[in-house]
Amino acid sequence: MDAWRLSVGTLTTVPIGAPIAVGSRVAASAMVLAPVTALLLAVPAGMVFWIALVSGTGSLVAAVLVVVTLRLGDRAFHLDGLADTADGLAASYDRERSLAVMRTGDTGPAGVVAVVMVLMAQIAGAAHLGTVGLAGGTEVAAGAGVAGSVVVSRAMLTLGCVRGVPAARPDGLGAVVAGTVGRLRAAGLLLLVSVIFGGVLLAADPSAEMISSWSAPVALGVAGAATALVLRRCIQRFGGISGDVLGAIVEMALAASLLTLAALAG
């Protein structure tokens, strides 16, 4: 229950009690539960997208509504992390200076640009899925693609917390979860997410008129590559991960998954 409370309380706005104790095992379990917790955001986002499409709002408006739904569901926590990470990377090549900038809470030009660009990428990817879905009468598949991408993006947290990845500083969320997830456990979880995502796409579009089940592992692979790039850069610059870096991973992975599905749809 502590792991569930930590996962839900960190990733969503759903009211839940604080964990009684948070150790490495609880932190690891909380990160492994992230894809399950993500369903609290993914299902509403997918439903909103589908309803907006069939209601005639247009794919662009539907995509914007998805982003709004996610922001209401996660209080823009991950976007804040993305902005802080971008500011830290742009601030200085001095590690301590970069970490200090990230802790101020202010958003600088680099942070603003990063948030705008990533949100544009997310909206563009979802909008194209909606356009293809409307053209082929496969709006349900488009909604499934959006929902699955939300789950994929939260599953990437296991990569950010895998053993061997250090914390950037001795306090904060990063210090609690860094290096807590075993590599085999992370690999198994990502494989499971890929299989389930592919099955959902197959059920939503059996004829693969819009998107096929193999698109799921491709989207997860691209999201994983984006996560690896973020991790590599942040470890080089900051010495490890922080809560902000984990937020950046989520938002970058969501954009990568949606854009990949959009590129494969047709």
UniProtKB/TrEMBL annotation:
GO BP annotations, alphabetical order: cobalamin biosynthetic process
Membrane-crossing residue ranges in chain numbering: 47-70, 112-135, 141-165, 186-204, 210-231, 243-265
Cofactor or coenzyme needed: Mg(2+)
InterPro entries in the record: CobS
Gene source species: Phytoactinopolyspora halophila
Domain of life: Bacteria
Topological category with respect to the lipid bilayer: Multi-pass membrane protein
Task performed by this protein: Joins adenosylcobinamide-GDP and alpha-ribazole to generate adenosylcobalamin (Ado-cobalamin). Also synthesizes adenosylcobalamin 5'-phosphate from adenosylcobinamide-GDP and alpha-ribazole 5'-phosphate.
Protein name (record): Adenosylcobinamide-GDP ribazoletransferase
Reactions catalysed: alpha-ribazole 5'-phosphate + adenosylcob(III)inamide-GDP = adenosylcob(III)alamin 5'-phosphate + GMP + H(+); alpha-ribazole + adenosylcob(III)inamide-GDP = adenosylcob(III)alamin + GMP + H(+)
Main location: membrane
Enzyme Commission number(s): 2.7.8.26
Organism lineage: Bacteria, Bacillati, Actinomycetota, Actinomycetes, Jiangellales
GO MF annotations, alphabetized: adenosylcobinamide-GDP ribazoletransferase activity; cobalamin 5'-phosphate synthase activity
GO cellular component: plasma membrane
Pathway linked to the protein: Cofactor biosynthesis; adenosylcobalamin biosynthesis; adenosylcobalamin from cob(II)yrinate a,c-diamide: step 7/7
Keywords linked to the UniProt accession: Cell membrane, Cobalamin biosynthesis, Magnesium, Membrane, Transferase, Transmembrane, Transmembrane helix
Listed Pfam families: CobS
Subcellular location: Cell membrane
Family note: Belongs to the CobS family.
